[in-house]
Design a protein that fits this description.
Shape: globular
CATH class of the largest domain: Alpha Beta
Number of strands: 12
Strand content: 15-25%
CATH architecture of the largest domain: 3-Layer(aba) Sandwich
Number of domains: 2
Strand order of the largest sheet: 2-1-3-4-6-5-10
Number of helices: 12
Length: 297
């Protein structure tokens, strides 16, 4: 996802001199080419995320299209006040890019886990929240963001994610069927989709015909899409690499009964790679399949 983001950004920056990229001492092996091409439009703010958001606000008010990049806990929780007061209150044209969704940086411990960011930002007015599931959604949504003029939070995984969404018309505010079935719906976002697709295949072997829906925009939601989706399926499961409180599952509860498969409301006090922690938290394909089967009894 990181590579898809910077590739789309570089392409637009060649055509649009308004684009500016800020980073909080991160992006090594990712941003070198951008920095070389556009040295006057690349700023490393160092470990000073609150100041970086203030700088982004000033640049935006000066007419720049600003992208701010860091690991999710540092670009959200550490500077939440600046996001709220400096960016969202003024409804500025800034894209906040957080990398390392969910347990992507699991080996670095709970300070690098991103399990509460959606809930923290979702209640702030004016912000649009994008949660792409694969590189094709990242590319399309970044391109969409170039003509968008309101604050955006773009939540990315790390890298080497597989492609699942084959739609040629990915837009902000839409949701997409990755697979269409008639029995149950598995709704998801982010790189956890790889585990959801694994569960989809396991359920198919057991005769369960599931739909898989990618929801790369959680705010605003496509209400007509989800009203229709809930009517079509007997049960709806929302699988997300985020706290069960404050995520997509909570947003969809108003449409009908929603079964949330997410991280329980606790800190994960164990370090380990993404696969290991997903299994511990019941978010690998096998655990998702088991939970669905239990709910269908």
């Amino acid at each position: 996802m990181r590579n898809a983001f910077i590739t789309a950004l570089e392409g637009e920056a060649e055509r649009n001199e308004r684009i500016v990229l800020l980073t909080g001492d991160l992006g090594f092996s990712v941003f070198e080419n951008f920095q070389k091409k556009f040295p006057e439009r690349f700023f490393n703010a160092g470990l000073s995320e609150q100041n970086m958001m203030g700088l982004a606000a000033g640049l935006s008010l000066s007419g720049k299209k600003v992208f701010v990049y860091s690991i999710i806990p540092f670009v959200t929780f550490r500077c939440l006040e600046q996001i709220r007061n400096d960016i969202c209150y003024q409804d500025l044209d800034i894209v906040i890019v957080g990398v390392g969704s969910g347990l992507s940086y699991g080996a670095l411990g709970f300070s690098h886990h991103a399990n509460e960011d959606i809930g923290a930002l979702k209640s702030i007015p004016n912000i649009t929240i994008l949660l792409p599931s694969d590189p094709s959604e990242v590319s399309a949504l970044v391109k969409e963001s170039f003509s968008y003029t309101h604050p955006i939070y773009l939540r990315l995984g790390r890298n080497n994610e597989k492609k699942f969404n084959n739609s040629s018309n990915i837009k902000i505010g839409e949701a997409y069927y990755i697979a269409e079935g008639k029995d149950i719906a598995l709704v998801t976002h982010g790189s956890i989709i790889e585990e959801v697709m694994g569960a989809y295949e396991m359920l198919k072997e057991k005769g369960i015909n599931a739909s898989v829906i990618s929801c790369p925009t959680i705010k605003p939601l496509n209400e007509k899409f989800f009203e229709s989706m809930y009517k079509k399926h007997k049960k709806v499961f929302v699988v997300e690499e985020h706290n069960a409180i404050g995520g997509l599952g909570d947003s969809l509860c108003s449409f009908g009964k929603t079964i949330k498969i997410a991280i329980n409301d606790h800190f994960i006090c164990e370090a380990g790679d993404n696969k290991y922690l997903r299994a511990k938290e019941g978010l690998n394909a096998e655990s998702i399949t088991k939970r669905v089967l239990e709910e269908l009894k």
